[in-house]
Amino acid sequence: MITDASHRALSVPRGISVLEVLVVVALLSTLGGIAVLSHRAMRPGLDLRLAARQVVTDLRVARLRAVAENVNHRIVFPNGAGSYQPQRKNGSTYVDDGVAVRLPRGILITDCNATENGIGFKPRGNAATFGTVTIHNGDGDERRVIVDIAGQVRVQQ
Question: Were 133 and a residue from 81, 87, 93, 145 both cysteine, which residue would form a disulfide, CB within 3.0 to 4.6 Å?
Fold first, then answer.
């Protein structure tokens, strides 16, 4: 036979207390704050990797356009700038081909050792001018995008 006292001991509570809700909210707030702070600390490195991939992609696109359009294409990387300019050959000179491409905030081009700071491609896909583009973030980290004479593009840390 079940008594009143034993029945109360076996029953399940029907809700949560205000104290339990406050503890859960405090824990979630703390974890959220830690996540935001760690994301901010990682942001410059993530932006640098993103910028390096962006430069590699745009150089590969310039190479493909040179082959497809049967005309030289290049990208000019001004030292100290936060953007670069795609160009195409028109007669004996290069002209801008679209708008300048901005790098992520805080990323700068610190060096381009190619002739006239431009890496270019011929209609056969090989490099008309080749070299290394160095980009930096605010933390002093850098990535180098290297284009060889064959027109191959790669990233070096």
Answer: 145
Q: How many residues can be counted in the chain?
A: 157
Rounded distance, CA 153 to CA 110, Å? 18
CATH classification code of 12-156? 3.55.40.10
pLDDT score recorded for residue 43: 78
Residue 38, phi then psi, degrees to nearest 5: -70, -35
pLDDT of residue 44: 79
Q: Could you tell me how far CA 69 lies from the centroid of its own chain?
A: 28
Instruction: Give the per-residue pLDDT at 15.
Output: 78
What one-character-per-residue DSSP string does 5-35 give?
Answer: HHHHHHPPP-S--HHHHHHHHHHHHHHHHHH
Structure tokens given for 134: 């160095």
| Per-residue model confidence (pLDDT) at position 39 | 55
Tokens of 144: 């180098």
Label residue 116 left, alpha or beta by phi (over 0 means left) and psi (-120 to 50 means alpha). left
Strand segments (E) across 35-103: 73-76, 83-90, 93-96, 101-102
CA atoms of 147 and 140, how far apart (whole Å)? 23
C-alpha–C-alpha distance, residues 141 and 143, integer Å: 7
